[in-house]
């Protein structure tokens, strides 16, 4: 009993001690502080100024409220200011650069002359170095910069494969200057005439128009930026196997066919057409808008032009112009276009097109930009799968819906509200294009490609059907672009990039030769010089200007570019 009692007492003591300890512990415990969830500090909203030469801001209020633009701004906490001079793009840009206050993002089109010069003067932000510091933050740019096609283009443009100062545009959509003939359908119907399929048939058509209605000029021609001869070339020259300006690839090398006997025969033919009054007598001096006004006023029965261009896009613009004077015009009835190239003695009228349209434009960041990092983030986003979908389809739930399988259905009325106007008179809306220089005319999903060539091959040319209205324009004109592309002479990409290897002196000689040719051609066209009597003098003038040297330069430069290409893809 004593032992049991002792144990009980000990237990009571221990319990008392434990109770005291617990009470003391509770007393020592500080009062609990309520948990506060911290709110992330909002990112600073910065303004990014972007120079873009394809956007016309005819509706300033509309572009300010553009919902695609706003979605980008909200996503990245930026204010995007688009600078797009209506005229003098490069003059404006050079002025910016001379003051050291250029826009943050600059788009350079066509041949990269500006961006190469800017790189030489150290004016560009090093995109590659920035991406290399944090590649995980820029997965798409990292993918591009590691690719052999990017390295090849860097070496061609900057003479350094590792110099990632630009994002080169990449496209598999070829853009032929169609060299098509456009016809006034009402005049054709009134005169009982039909659209020809051959060059001989077209010439006979001009004569028939003149005979049936002498008050109508049978043929006008688009003239702008000195491109008259290029407009006439496909029908009246390349269908005969010659080219009045460009060198022609024959038997693995380039030759100048402009001084050949066949070229002489072509010029005699064109001169004769002018003498017969079949060509607008003011063809050399007309302003571009005058040409389209004349066509719209039924002064021309046919028009030589680069329309419809790629996949009918140009036809859409021309149709818009035509509607000004023919508000009820129907495509394919009142406004007709060659549905495929006219055929001549040497086959279909064609153009030389690259297998890929790469580096036709580019996007860079100005070295003095105070928001270069945020500008780089913007470029990365616009190249990402999400950014590409936003560019081409708009905001989900507003401009389109997506089903469980990922199929997209456009909300056409809403998409049409966003303001991007290519030209006055445009009747259909193309892509939302403030970033058109970045990925050209393709919808890319880089994450699904193994390399850039594969990305180009898999990219969707939504430009083909981005006339989002299912109307007569697209049905009539879109197949035409494919027909002209199929008739083109496809050249390896290294051949079309060979002009990048012309030195300044070589370029000067080339320009002198071209200017010499154009001066003679103007005189031939309007009959100031007789082709038969003056042909030998023309040939000698081309030779004296450096015609033989230009042929040599071209072939040497093609060889040099091909050697570089083979390093990466041989």
Poorly predicted spans: 1-31
| Architecture (CATH level 2) name of the largest domain | 3-Layer(aba) Sandwich
Estimate the helix proportion, in percent: 40-55%
Shape: globular
- Please list the strands of the largest sheet in the order they lie side by side: 2-1-3-14-4
Task: State the fourth-level CATH superfamily of the largest domain.
Answer: Periplasmic binding protein-like II
Supply Rg.
Answer: 32 Å
SS class: alpha/beta
CATH topology of the largest domain: D-Maltodextrin-Binding Protein, domain 2
Tell me the major beta sheet. 5 strands, mixed
How many separate domains make up the residues? 3
CATH class of the largest domain, please?
Alpha Beta
Q: Beta fraction of the residues?
A: 5-15%
Overall mean pLDDT stands at 85
Number of helices: 24
The total of beta strands comes to 17
- Could you tell me how far the N terminus lies from the C terminus, measured between alpha carbons in angstroms? 103 Å
What this model shows, in words?
The protein is α/β, with parallel strands linked by helices and 570 residues long. The chain has 3 domains: 46-171 and 355-460, Periplasmic binding protein-like II (D-Maltodextrin-Binding Protein, domain 2); 177-240 and 260-350 and 469-491, 3-Layer(aba) Sandwich (D-Maltodextrin-Binding Protein, domain 2), CATH 3.40.190.10; 492-570, no CATH class. Helix content is 47%, strand content 13%. The chain is built from 24 helices and 17 strands. The chain has a 5-stranded mixed sheet with strand order 2-1-3-14-4, sandwiched between helices. It has a 4-stranded mixed sheet with strand order 6-9-5-10. Strand 7 and strand 8 (253-255) form a beta hairpin. Helix 14 (313-323) packs across helix 20 (472-487) and helix 22 (504-525) runs antiparallel to helix 23. The longest helix is centred in the N-terminal third of the chain and has 27 residues, at 2-28. It is globular, with a radius of gyration of 32 Å. The chain starts with a helix and ends with a helix.
